[in-house]
Specification:
The chain is mainly alpha-helical. The chain has helices at about 5-10, 15-35, 50-55, 60-85, 90-110.
């Protein structure tokens, strides 16, 4: 049973690579669901903390937290997969997305208040 040309070029070879790509896709799904759920909470004020947001706007907060978590885990698993010789371009894309999300959260958390 030979691999098709599509499988050779466009599918990750390792289980870690496949898991990294799946988690990256779940990031986009959860982020989209969080974006769509903003329509449910028109007129509901944002909380001053994550716990306040979970209380006031649970679907939005949970979807966004899950999307951030899946992006960071996808990045970590992607880095491990690349170290173990995975060369699929979507694994590198998952690492990039995870890094950007981590960087954004880091900057947001440690921003300097005037």
């Amino acid at each position: 049973m030979s691999e098709s040309n599509f499988e050779k070029k466009f599918l990750p070879k390792t289980k870690l690579g496949k898991l990294s790509v799946i988690l990256m896709l779940t990031f986009f799904v959860f982020f989209f669901l969080g974006f769509v759920s903003t329509n449910l909470y028109r007129g509901v004020p944002a909380g001053n903390s994550i716990l306040a947001d979970v209380k006031n706007r649970p679907f939005l907060a949970i979807f966004i937290i899950l999307s951030l978590f899946s992006a960071v885990v996808s990045m970590i698993i992607g880095i491990i997969a690349v170290i173990k010789k995975e060369r699929f371009f979507l694994v590198y894309f998952a690492i990039l997305i995870g890094f950007l999300i981590t960087f954004f959260c880091w900057v947001k958390f440690f921003r300097i208040k005037k």
